[in-house]
Amino acid sequence: MDHTDHTAVLALFDRDLRREARPDGPGARVERTGGVVRQTAPAHGWNGVVWSALDEADADAAIAEQIAHFTGLGRAFEWKLYGHDLPADLGRRLVAAGFTPEPEETLMVGEVAGLALDTEPPEGIRLVPVTDRAGVDLVADVHEKAFGADASRLRHQLLDRLSADPDTVVAVVALAGDQPVSAARMELVPGTGFAGLWGGGTVRAWRGRGLYRALVAHRARAAAERGYRYLQVDASDQSRPILERLGFAPLTTTTPYVYVPTS
């Protein structure tokens, strides 16, 4: 994609996945209130702001309104801030209101037809589709070992999605023998050209052997089979160069600002 394409695809991303966002799981609802689009979900789901159209005059009031909404439900929530969002000091305003920024990532998008999809898993590894509770347990096991984080919310969300709307998620686990060593998922957004890559993680002993690339290629082929044009990823500094070699382009940055109620 050249610069003109970048601008057009980012505008499409903003429209389809943010301004006109759809609920990402059972029990979730998307609401448009003032200049903000937010998702309210069960406690184990994703709660937060996906899009805003604010200026210096109304930003602080909008922030206060979202804090009141989510804390009234007893929910921690995330304001997903992108590098081109306005006002330019929105991140500073969020911090002043009590949010904590997590590490900045890069929004990367690849046109499926232009990606390098011939990457296969290393010898001795087989990729297994995740379709049931046993598979979800394997994904959760990889997540906990790869990221050192509790996977109970991920387990609940993935089970919900596979049960209620299996056509909107593709999950895969890489097995070395019967041991799960890497896992990832793809979330499909019906009615748009976008599918999102999430959760790519590999246990330490298997890193650097091409598993991340293989799981990206596997999901990209699945997206192509389903007619999706674009893949998007919130890329860490570690995954960005791998994705660039596969044909993804950086469009902007994204930073989660997290608000946790004090009581």
Automatic annotation (TrEMBL):
Annotated coiled-coil segments of the chain: none
Gene3D superfamilies from the UniProt entry: 3.40.630.30
Pfam families: Acetyltransf_1
GO MF assignments: acyltransferase activity, transferring groups other than amino-acyl groups
PROSITE patterns: GNAT (PS51186)
Highest taxon of the lineage: Bacteria
Residues annotated as domain N-acetyltransferase: 125-263
InterPro entries per UniProt: Acyl_CoA_acyltransferase, GNAT_dom
Record protein name field: GNAT superfamily N-acetyltransferase
Source organism per UniProt: Streptomyces griseomycini
